[in-house]
Amino acid sequence: MRHWLRRALLSLVALVASLAPATQAALPLVAQRDGMPTLAPMLAQVTPAVVNIAVIQRKPEAQNPLLRDPFFRRFFGLPDQDRPQMSAGSGVIMNAAQGYVLTNHHVIKDASEVVVTLTDNRRLEARVVGSDAGTDIALLKIEAERLAAAQPADSDALQVGDFVVAIGNPFGIGQTVTSGIVSALGRAGLSNEGYEEFIQTDAPINPGNSGGALVNLKGELVGINTAIIGPSGGNVGIGFAVPVNMARAVMQQLIRFGEVRRGRLGISMQDLAPERARALKIAAGAVIAEVQPDSPAAQAGLRVGDVVIAVNGRAVRTASGLRARLGVLPVGDSVELTVRRDGATQTMRARIGEIEARHARQGRRIPELEGATLAAVQGDSRDGSRSGVLVVAVEAGTAAFQNGLRPGDLIVGVNRRRVDSVEALAERLRNRGLIALNVVRGDFLLTIVIG
Question: What is the DSSP track for 211-255?
C-alpha cells in the first residue's frame, strides 16, 4: 500500500511539472521573479499611459446673478464663492502624437480648468475636446513630448472569467493598481441615458479611479473605468468600465465633431426571450418590436420580429447592447445588421438617418432652460412621430448643454407629465427644484435630471 501511494505521488508531481510550462506560455507577461509570479513588467509598460486628472469645477450657483453678489452672500452667511471646488480622477493616453486622453464625462463635467499629471510628475493644462454624457466618455488634449499611449484590445473578445487589472488614482492618493476578473459583460441600467454595455469587474475600484484603465494581462486596454456600486461610493467588488471599442467610437466622433452626433434607425427593441432563443438555436440577440414607417430601418427591409444578432459583424447580446452599438454611430454611417428571420440568417445594410424635426415652428428661448432654443412639434399618429418640444439648438457650455441636452432631442414630458408646447414646458420647469426631463433621442427614451 505504501509503495502504491509513493508511485501515485510521484506521478502527480510529474503531471504538475508538465503543466507548468503550458501555464506560463498562456500568460507570457506574468513574469517570474525569485521564483514568484509578478505583473511588474506588464505594468511598467502600461502605467505611463494612465494619468491623474485634477479638475477645478464651476459651482452651480455661479449661474445665478443673485448668488454672485458678494453683499448678498455675506448677508446670508454663504461661503466665499472664490473658493474653488476641486475634484480628482484618472485618464488614459490614447494617442501619444496628438496628446489625446480619454476620461469620464462626470470627471470633467462643469470644469473651468483641467490639469493632467503624468507618471513622471509633469503637470500639463488640458483642453476639453468634447464630452458625451450618454456613454460617460470625455476627450482631453494635452501638448507634450515623450508621451506613452495605451494599446487597445478588442473588448468584444472579452469573456467572463478573464483576468483584468484596474489602474487609476483612487481618492487622489496617487496611481494605484488592483486586480480581479471580468465578472459579467453587457451590463446596463446604471443611468437613464440608454447607451450602456458595461464590463463588470471585481477589481477594486474607488472614487478617483474614474477614467482610469482596465487592462488585460497583456497590458492591453479593454475598458475605461467609470462607476462603482457600494456604500458611500466605496468598493465592494462591483465596478464597471466602458468597453474600449465603444470608447474609441465616441472618441472618433469627439475628434471629428466635438460631440456625439447620434442619428436614427427607426426601430424599438426588446430582449430575446430564452425560449425563443432556444427555438432559433441562437445564444442571444435583440428582437425588433417596432419599425417606424419610412425610416432607415424600413427602407433597409427590417421587420417586426427580426432578431438582430450582430452589428457590423460584432455580436449583440441584448436590447441594451444593440442600443449602445447604434448609439455611437454618426448620422450618414452605413451599418450592417445580421438578423435571424424564419430560421434563416440574413445580412441587411441601413444608413443612419437624421433625427427629423417635423412640423417645428420657429425656435424660441426660455430662462428656465438656459442655452437651449426650443420649438413645439405636433406629431402625426399615422407615421409614428411624436408631439413635444424640440431642442432646435444648444449653446456649448450653457446649463442646458452641461445637463446633457443636445440638438434634435424631443422633450415629451417633465417628471412623467406630458408637455406639447414651449409654454407648458416653461410652466412645468418653473420653481420645481429637481427636474426629470423625459426625452426622445433617436430611437431611445431617456431621462435627463436637471438640478
Answer: T-EEEETTSEEEEEEEEE-SGGG--SS-EEEEEHHHHHHHHHHHH
Q: Among candidates 363, 353, 367, which has minimal Cα distance to 389?
A: 363
Q: Which of 136, 202, 306, 420 is catalytic?
A: 136
Cβ neighbours for 389, distance < 8 A, ≥ 6 positions apart:
374, 375, 376, 377, 410, 411, 412, 419, 420, 421, 422, 424, 425
Is 106 among the residues known to form the active site?
yes
156 touches 186 (CB < 8 A): no
Task: Assign 10 to helix, strand or coil.
Answer: helix
pLDDT in tens, 141-171: 999 999 999 999 999 999 999 999 999 987 6
* Range among 48-62, 80-94, 137-151, 173-187 with highest mean pLDDT value: 137-151
Active site residue 112: no
Strands 213-216 and 220-228: antiparallel
Torsion, CA 119, CA 123, CA 125, CA 127, rounded to 10: 0
90, 106, 202, 306: the catalytic one is 106
Domains, the chain, in order of start with CATH, read 46-66+77-141 (2.40.10.120), 151-257 (2.40.10.10), 267-351 (2.30.42.10), 367-450 (2.30.42.10)
Sequence-distant (≥ 6) Cβ neighbours of residue 358 within 8 angstroms: 377, 379, 380, 385
Sign of the C-alpha dihedral computed for residues 324, 317, 239 and 212 taken in this order? negative
Which phi and psi angles does 393 have, rounded to 5°? -155, 155
Decide: 250 and 132 in contact? Cβ < 8 Å: yes
Give tens-digit pLDDT for 265-292: 888 888 888 888 888 888 888 999 888 8
245 touches 311 (CB < 8 A): no
Q: Using CA of residue 282, residue 287, residue 293, residue 297, what is the dihedral sign?
A: negative
Mark whether 210 is an active-site residue: yes
pTM of the model: 0.72
Is the Cβ–Cβ distance between 348 and 259 less than 8 Å? no
Which of 87, 191, 210, 295 is catalytic? The answer is 210
Please check whether residue 240 is in contact with residue 199, taking contact to mean a CB–CB distance below 8 angstroms.
yes
| Distance from C-alpha of 437 to C-alpha of 310, rounded to nearest angstrom | 32
Q: What is the CA radius of gyration of the chain?
A: 25
DSSP 8-state symbol, 127: E
